[in-house]
């Protein structure tokens, strides 16, 4: 049975104990990175709010004074 496993830890010996936490840590970091990339971040929200404001102004839903006031609020 020892030949099937190539000795202890599938041939990795003591390195198996060191590599396994690194492997799982890398997997966790990859998942966190993917979630942040796909899910977006809140740093894009001010830009999106300004885009919506511009769209509303272009559609005539708000006048120039409202546009300028809201734009100023967003920049603060």
Protein described:
Residues 49-74 form the SHOCT domain. Pfam families: SHOCT (PF09851). Keywords: Membrane, Transmembrane, Transmembrane helix. The chain crosses the membrane at residues 12-35. This protein has three helices and no strands. The chain has two domains: 1-40; 42-76. It is an all-alpha fold and 76 residues long. Helix 2 runs antiparallel to helix 3 (64-75).
Q: Tell the overall outline.
A: rod-shaped
> What composes the largest sheet?
none
- The unreliable regions are none
Overall SS class = mainly alpha
How many strands? Answer: 0
Helix content: 55-70%
**Distance linking N and C termini:** 69 Å
What is the number of domains?
Answer: 2
Q: Give the mean pLDDT.
A: 81
Pfam families: SHOCT
InterPro entries: SHOCT (IPR018649)
Keywords: Membrane, Transmembrane, Transmembrane helix
Protein name: SHOCT domain-containing protein
Give a nutshell description of this structure.
With 76 residues, the chain is mostly helical.
Secondary structure: elements and pairs:
Elements: H1 15-39, H2 45-59, H3 64-75
Features:
3 helices, mainly alpha, 76 residues, single chain, 68% helix, 2 domains
